[in-house]
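Lecture 7 notes: from sequence to structure.
We start with the chain below.
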Amino acid sequence: MKLNTPAWWYRRDRRQGVVLRMLLTPGGWIWAAATARRITRARPVDPGVPVISIGNLTVGGSGKTPVAMETLRLLRGAEVHAHALSRGYGGRLAGPVRVDPAVHTAADVGDEPLMLATGAPTWIARDRVAGARAAAAAGARCLVLDDAHQNPNLTKTLSLVVVDGETRDEEWPFGDGAVFPAGPMREPLKVGLARADAVIVLLPADLPEVDPELRSVFGDMPVFVARLAAEAAPPPGPQLGFAGIAKPWKVERALKAAGCDLVDFAAFPDHAAYSESELTALADRAAVFDAGLITTEKDWVRLPPEWRARVAAWPVRARFEREAEFRDWLSAAISKARDQD
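Predicted structure tokens for the same chain:
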């Protein structure tokens, strides 16, 4: 059974969840050691095309998929024929397989690949090397890896780490630095940053700038700032929101900031597969307020087809503050990698 992300993970105050932290800390040591061992022992394979890895240092909630989608859009604008490659978390297919939104469902390939496939050729493969080779054979001239910072099996041209820039209400993207399950980290902060070429700080639409304390964490590393922007205003009238992502409270906060008349909000575990009974309960609750139902685009693609007409999707996109600079930086790295082949 999946559990909701504990909010105390993203607090630096060690007094919150203190007993659980103590009990789970040995598990974090084991997780960090296993990750380090896997990375150290790996022999990365060059798939023959430049590889841009977009990942994060935490178990979720940083916004890496919107950043991957925007990176693919910018590469397309620079006339780089890039394909996306994902593990396909939550899907039953092992791959390699090219995602077809008209054929595949989230149960087949996962929710994030379905989103990526709306803007670029997208592949899923539990074996990233096999997936990269399949994409290259199909004509990819660059690969954008979604969620691959801790996957060492491919030679990477660039490794980008996405960091959630929300620091209000005592929130901190790395919590107290503890590794899963004692905290949100996939590996210790310094270890993960050491393998990164740049950091992308993703800000919510209503946060004016990056917290100087957060920016100082990255030292002299290149830092690019992107911002989540809604493609449209929330629907008018009262709405009942729900979300099954790593940080569902961010959706609630964003809807309110966008002017949504949010009468209630329900949080579910990340990648939740909504049951008929859960959706019926949400609809019944919304009826009490004479409200509509609204959720994220990532959640919407996981809904049964018969429910999609009853629920509004609220899509948001990542947009870079210095878009041309980021695009040119990517293009220069890709050109250099091609020249070295």
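Points to note: The chain has a mean pLDDT of 91. The first helix runs from residue 18 to 41.
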